Amino acid sequence: MAYKTILVQIDDGKRCRARVELAIRLARRYDAHLIGLNALTLTELPGYVLAGAGGAPIIDVQKRLADEQAARAQATFREAASAAGLAAAEWRTTELDAVDAVALHGRYADLIVLGQPSAEDNSQVGSGFAEQVVLDAGRPVLMVPYAGDFAGIGKRILIGWNARREAIRAVTDAIPFLRQAEGVRVIVINPKAAEHGAMPGSDIALYLARHDVRVEVYVDHAAEVDVGNEILSRAADFGADLIVMGAYGHSRMREIVMGGASRTIIDSMTVPVLLSH
């Protein structure tokens, strides 16, 4: 497997430029086609406003502002891609809701690059956007923290492993990163023999070894451990610049329910995280 198509979501947030630059570096590293998708969630007007005399002018203003934002975003994307010497860069814009647009276009990419949710970023993508994409797209999502500089990622990778379906999806999706890493550590927290076998972590280590990935396995036994914070702590101890883990949760009627560890990581990540569901 290789990342031959990478999609990065573009919005009007403060950290969008950093996210785009990371996606460009990854496209260069993997000789991939890069898609910049401008996708926002416009404010939905109440029915009584749309029905009134002021509805049409408000819609016109919304559209004008969205068009102006898209033009600025396209110029930024093209400028950054050109400066990096990236020839295979494609620009797309859409009037679909951001979740629907990124999930749809992302299904035809090998990797989706999004930003960590942040109320301070002021991006027009709506509450729960990133989580919903992770659960809906069916593709791996590389989530970039809203603070910090990530010029290069993937030298030291921590894998949060619990032998569940989502975890193996994430590990398999991360193989291009894992093959190029200088160090890979698998962390298993409070394993149950029925789920992992007699030697927790050994099966995934053997699986990765057959993909030319050498790993070291650490097993943590701790009562009442907060799994999400434990992963973040172990990532810091290891000096990891990328975390790989499954995203646990479900969505129903646009209501998102994330598992405890997934929610902690999404809320508190300090390095990029590759999530698969």
Distance between the termini: 18 Å
Number of helical elements: 11
Quick one: biggest sheet?
10 strands, mixed
Order of helices and strands: EHEHHEHEHEEHHEHHEHEEEHE
Strand neighbour order, sheet with most strands? 3-2-1-4-5-12-9-6-7-8
The helix content, as a percent range, equals 40-55%
Mean pLDDT: 88
Which structural category fits the helices and strands?
alpha/beta
Care to count the β-strands?
12
Low-confidence stretches: none
Please report which band the strand proportion falls in: under 5%, 5-15%, 15-25%, 25-35%, 35-45% or over 45%: 15-25%
Radius of gyration: 20 Å
Shape: globular
List the helices and strands and how they pair.
Blueprint: E1 5-10, H1 16-29, E2 33-38, H2 47-51, H3 55-83, E3 89-93, H4 98-106, E4 111-115, H5 129-136, E5 141-144, E6 156-161, H6 165-173, H7 175-180, E7 183-189, H8 193-196, H9 202-209, E8 216-220, H10 227-238, E9 242-246, E10 249-252, E11 255-258, H11 260-268, E12 273-276
Parallel strand pairs: 1-2, 1-4, 2-3, 4-5, 6-7, 6-9, 7-8, 9-12
Antiparallel strand pairs: 5-12, 10-11
Helix pairs in contact: 1-3, 4-5, 10-11
Overall description:
The chain is built from 11 helices and 12 strands. The protein has 277 residues and is α/β, with parallel strands linked by helices. The chain is globular.
Summarize the structure.
The chain has eleven helices and twelve strands. It is an alpha/beta fold and 277 residues long. The model has no long low-confidence stretch (mean pLDDT 88).
What descriptors fit this protein?
11 helices, 277 residues, alpha/beta, 41% helix, ten-stranded mixed β-sheet
